[in-house]
Design goal:
With about 425 residues, this protein is α+β, with helices and mostly antiparallel strands. It has 13 helices and 16 strands. The chain has helices spanning about 5-20, 30, 40-45, 65, 75-80, 100-115, 120-135, 145-150, 190-200, 215-220, 280-295, 300-320, 330-335, and strands spanning about 155-160, 165, 225-230, 230-235, 240, 245-255, 255-265, 270-275, 340, 345-355, 355-360, 365-370, 380, 390-395, 400-405, 410-415.
Length: about 425
């Protein structure tokens, strides 16, 4: 799985439709998806197609409603749930990465291309016929089942709560299916290099044919919002100008997979790194740094950083496990109710088997460990491979009737049933 490196592919699909005259970057979202809305009616009315891809809409990152309790979610219900997303800044003013917004952009493109099909089927067909096929990406798919059944499948790996490397339960990544324009592509390095070559050749295929106009392709590379000093986000592309030249890139992460694609237009050079490890981006970014050192003559830091990482990553992981009781203290776990419900995240069930406490979030489950905090609350940390450092559930009161999960500035509340 290439994770969020799907996003530049989705924006390329939109660009292809713009180039064909079927839509514009400025096409109002409600003109194609009349039922689409966010919590602010004024913002809903102002949103254009480009705003779904620019991370500048003001809609904040809200991944947990996507990732938890996804069993019956569809593209339509995912879009419907966006009606509860409240902006936290004005349109175009601040960087806020949102998987839901890019997913909406992909489904909008699918609706333009194949208006009679269901949203997900339309996006899948549009990507297959309008992008994967002409670019020769024959091993690339949006089918989760086809990805899992590939004879050349790289199994996802992650560390568990004991610091041991394990194969991640692949079904947990099904959470991305209903929002697949933001992260659902399965691919190979060779196929992704075909996409990268199109970017480097500014819209030309290997046979020399201009597949997409240079003007429309490059529109995606224009900064839409600042992300830091000399860094920006375009239309589903990160832009870095801090090293004296423009670097375009995107990372991606699903459970047990991490990826990186980047290119330097000035040097007509780029790379694709796909890893089947939840630590993969660490190595990918060091590889990118080393290449930049060689090409741009930067101070050499990557090899020393790699040596430091190799020595310290396991030590740091073990340090994070200090003070954690795994499995949880039976008396603490006994206070938990069997079933909780959140208006935003759905149902959480708690099971106890083989001396373990299991949290089932609907679609996947994971054993947990516990840590008593100075304020008297108990935190439960996921210990299943791929979930470590990702899911932490707070039990703030002694009777265990309430559980909390925090994401950025948002707190989700579970109440016992």
């Amino acid at each position: 799985m290439v994770g969020s490196t799907t996003k530049p592919l989705t924006s390329l699909l939109v660009a292809r439709l713009v180039d064909q005259g079927l839509m514009r970057w400025e096409t109002p979202v409600h003109a194609v998806l009349p039922d689409f809305k966010v919590a602010d009616p004024q913002l809903t009315a102002r949103l254009e197609t480009r705003h779904l891809l620019c991370a500048c809409s003001g809609i904040p990152r809200r991944d947990l409603p996507l990732f938890l309790n996804f069993g019956n979610r569809t593209p339509a219900t995912m879009l419907g749930a966006m009606a509860g997303l409240q902006p936290v800044s004005d349109l175009g003013k601040e960087y806020h990465y949102s998987n839901q917004m890019v997913a909406a952009g992909g489904f909008l493109a699918g609706r333009v291309a194949f208006p009679s099909l269901e949203l997900g089927a339309a996006y899948d067909r549009a990507m297959s016929q309008l992008l994967f096929s002409p670019l020769g990406m024959r091993s690339t798919t949006l089918s989760f089942e086809q990805g899992l059944q590939s004879p050349n499948l790289a199994l996802p790996h992650g560390f568990n709560g004991q610091g041991q490397l394990e194969v991640v339960d692949a079904k947990a990544n099904r959470n991305v299916i209903a929002a697949r324009p933001s992260g659902g592509v399965w691919s190979t390095v060779n196929d992704m290099l075909r996409y990268l070559a199109l970017e480097l050749n500014e819209g030309h295929l290997p046979n020399g044919r201009q597949w997409i106009s240079r003007r429309v392709l490059l529109e995606r590379r224009k900064p839409q919002v600042n992300t830091g000093p000399d860094s920006f986000y375009g239309l589903a592309l990160a832009i870095d100008r801090s090293m004296g030249t423009t670097v375009l890139q995107h990372t991606g992460a699903t459970l047990g997979y991490q990826s990186l694609i980047f290119w330097i237009p000035e040097y007509r050079l780029g790379a694709v790194v796909l890893t089947n490890s939840d630590q993969g981006t660490l190595l990918a970014l060091l590889m990118q740094r080393r290449l930049m050192e060689l090409v741009l003559g930067l101070r050499q830091e990557a090899e020393a950083d790699l040596e430091h990482l190799a020595k310290n990553v396991r030590m740091e992981r073990m340090r994070q496990l200090q003070g954690i009781q795994n499995p949880p203290d039976p008396a603490e776990a006994a206070r938990l109710s069997r079933r909780y419900r959140s208006p935003d995240l759905g149902v959480l069930t708690v099971e106890r088997r083989n001396n373990q406490t299991i949290f089932d979030f609907g679609g996947f489950s994971t054993p947990v460990a516990s840590r008593r905090m100075p304020d008297g609350s108990v935190h439960y940390m996921a210990t299943g491979a791929g979930f470590v450092d990702w899911l932490e559930v707070e039990s703030p009161d002694p009777d265990g009737r309430t559980l909390l999960i925090r994401e950025s500035h948002q707190t989700y509340r579970y109440s016992a049933e």
